[in-house]
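#structure-requests
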Amino acid sequence: MWAIGLETFLLCEDPWRIFLTTDHPNGAPFYTYPHLIRLLMDRSFRKEMMLKVNPDALKYSTLPNLEREYSLYEVAIMTRAGPARSLGLKDIGHLGVGASADITVYTDNADREAMFTTPDYVFKMDHGTLVPAGGSDFNSEIMVDTDLEQDIWVQAAEVRGNFNVVHHNVVSVIGPDGVYARTGRLASAVPGKQWDRFPVGSGKLIEAGSTLSFGLHYHPSNEPVVDTSSVAVWLVRDEITHELHSSVVADADLKIPPFESNYESRGEFVFETDAEITLFKPHMHYRGKDMLFRVVYPNGTKRTLLSVPNYDMNWQISYEFAQPVPVPMGTRLEVISHFDNSTGNPWNPNPSVAVLWGQDSRDEMMEGWFDYHVELEEPIVPDRVEQVWSVGP
């Protein structure tokens, strides 16, 4: 699968006709965009990687004969301008006539992967966690000191770890007062997603002296593995007009009967201030079937904002709005989901048992995650912080 993907990129001569979608660890040996971009830009690195592939498998691939290397221009088109145009945003991501000059500036680096990955801070576990071979899933909460001497505003975050055993990791901020940040989680990694990027003009605050909580769910593999997870963050560089919040609608009381094919679960959230919804992310386990997000405005009008009719636990992607959706104070967000505990569900671990809420993937969860931002009373201009590597060995 991964070889076919690389071949497609390298054989397509027009960068406007191809672009990256959400990377997915279950389908390839590369986990992040920078790793894939390096494979496209550096043929020597590509050949080095192919030395690790079974020679019999390479006989069926054209990769060994492809000498092409992507240019920075082609990468820019593929990662920014092309996707923007596919959404009808023809003035974004390039420097053509009439463009908005919405571009990204990179510092050239012979190591193409490092060129696209260098964050402002990396916060890492002090010690690795040994995940023994086999056995049951288990959860662990690890505290990581930030050692920050000044407040920072985060624009993007990437959760890193050994995803052979890390099923998910939810990173939260605990302020210097010992209280979890009211804005919710900082970032998370789940199957199909390892990063969060917040809308322009908004960000999440990490106060000086804060601690990070890593909420880890481990799924053992066939061999013992040590995981030393971390979170990389990129800072906001421009004026901040909105504070971003992450929240969730959940139904912890769900009880799915044996062999039930269409169990319904509901939950809701009421906005206590004017806000704008920026993102939805459904989360269920093996029996998750579908999820719908809709708002009920104060005047009673209902509007469906997202419907996921065929949920797949292996693709827990985030659905970001091209333009944030305004919701006035008093708006109610309703989340409605269905679960299939029947023999007709090929992913079902055991249809003969009643299923309750639980951390194990064989249990269930109904969580409708969402992000929204609230306008600040006064805009904030963040300090210009020099790019550094911080915290952890």
